[in-house]
Write a structure and sequence with these properties.
about 400 residues; alpha+beta; Pdz3 Domain; 2-enoyl-CoA Hydratase, Chain A, domain 1; 6-stranded antiparallel β-sheet; 12 helices; about 30% helix
Length: about 400
């Protein structure tokens, strides 16, 4: 995929997850307010926060500085320190990588609009094409096979490598740069030259379910990630849903995002109260929902092993407070908090500074959340049945 959620493979998963629970701006503004300042990730803000870094953060910064003085790579030296530290979610990014993650959290990315997956026989298939994207305009469709990217054969390559080729590197990855794709579809093999564009992610999808069945319809709200504005979209979808419609909130595969957006989403279903507690360098703090949410509408939450971070925070809050029935499989278990420190020579180190807990005090990191109803296959159908039993249609 050329979008912002290509956390594929162990290294890619760790890097992606390290930025999925972004407390950086929240911590400086007051977590209970749910406000994320626009300058939360500017170099000045990063430099200010780096003063309060832990010893480990200072070690990373010092290692990068020594390496640069010796004519070596500061980023590689910082990565070595983080790797030795045992910080499971610690990661180091160069300036371009960190800028890409910032774009992703803002709900935008630079690419061609293709999501890719591997077929059983090892080929790379187009899983989804974003409407209005360069790929869509070129006539590329889901199910087409990707044979090459800029002349590089991609058959049997890891999808993460295919993603890297699609995105490009350095100036190649800029908006307006071109990428040549060898594609094979129903009409045969062809080459399409696409121009990368700034695209908006589709983090929230809303649709009616249960049409044509007895009883009221239900509303399915799928949240792929908590990018900027996604929490408001969830809240608006709940407010505008028919009065007798239940809600199926699908958080499967949601790798997290901005915690403020997860709290806003929680506020759609809660009338104020605690969403989570967390600690930063041992100091205890709390996150609270805004008052006025819909506390009576039937609600079922779908989760799986790809439900991570801020999505687990939301799931835990709704489960602990008896607001929803959770259905699916155990979530990923990413409940730690990272803060960024600016490195000399550019780049950013993300280091773990604390953990969050559900309203009942459950730790999530390394444990995940066990759903009320464990379901393997046909999870969505089972969830709809549960919702119907709660009086929510479908």
């Amino acid at each position: 995929m050329s979008g912002p959620t290509q956390c594929l493979g162990p290294r890619g998963m760790r890097r992606g997850a390290a930025l999925t629970l972004v407390f950086a701006g929240v911590l400086t503004a007051g977590a209970a307010t749910g406000v994320l300042p626009r300058d939360a990730h500017t170099p000045a803000a990063l430099a200010t926060r780096s003063v309060a870094s832990t010893v480990k953060g200072e070690d990373v910064t010092a290692a990068a500085a020594r390496a640069i003085a010796d004519g070596k790579s500061g980023k590689e030296a910082a990565e070595e320190v983080v790797s030795r530290s045992g910080d499971r979610w610690g990661a180091v990014y160069d300036e371009r990588q960190y800028a890409e993650f910032e774009q992703a959290l803002d709900g935008t990315y630079t690419g061609v609009g293709i999501s890719a997956r591997r077929t059983k026989d090892g080929r790379v298939e187009v899983a989804r094409v974003q409407p209005g994207s360069p790929a869509a305009r070129a006539g590329i469709e889901p199910g087409d096979l990707l044979r090459s990217v800029d002349g590089h054969r991609v058959d049997r390559r890891p999808v993460a490598e295919v993603v890297a080729l699609l995105r490009g590197d350095g100036a190649e990855a800029a908006e307006g740069s071109t990428v040549a794709l060898g594609v094979e579809g129903a009409g045969g093999a062809r080459t399409e030259t696409l121009r990368r564009a700034r695209l908006a992610t589709e983090a929230v999808t809303i649709r009616r379910i249960g049409a044509g069945r007895p009883g009221p319809e239900a509303v399915l709200i799928e949240v792929d990630s908590f990018t900027k504005g996604s929490g408001t979209k969830v809240r608006d979808a709940v407010r505008t849903a028919p009065a007798d419609a239940g809600v199926l909130l699908d958080l499967r595969g949601n790798s997290g995002g901005l915690v403020t957006e997860a709290v806003t989403a929680a506020s759609a279903f809660l009338d104020g109260g605690l969403v989570a507690t967390y600690d930063v360098h041992g100091e205890q703090r709390a996150l609270y929902a805004q008052p006025g949410g819909d506390t009576s509408r039937p609600l079922v939450v779908l989760v799986d092993g790809g439900t991570m971070s801020a999505a687990e925070l939301l799931t835990g809050a709704l489960q602990d407070r008896g607001r929803a029935v959770t259905v699916g499989s155990r979530t990923f278990g990413k409940g730690s908090i990272q803060m960024p420190s600016r490195l000399p020579g550019g780049g950013v180190a993300e280091l773990t500074v604390g953990h969050y807990r559900t309203p009942a005090g459950r730790g999530v990191d390394g444990r995940g959340i066990t759903p009320d109803l464990a379901v393997g296959s046909r999870a969505e159908q089972r969830a709809e049945t549960v919702l119907s039993g709660l009086g929510g249609g479908s």
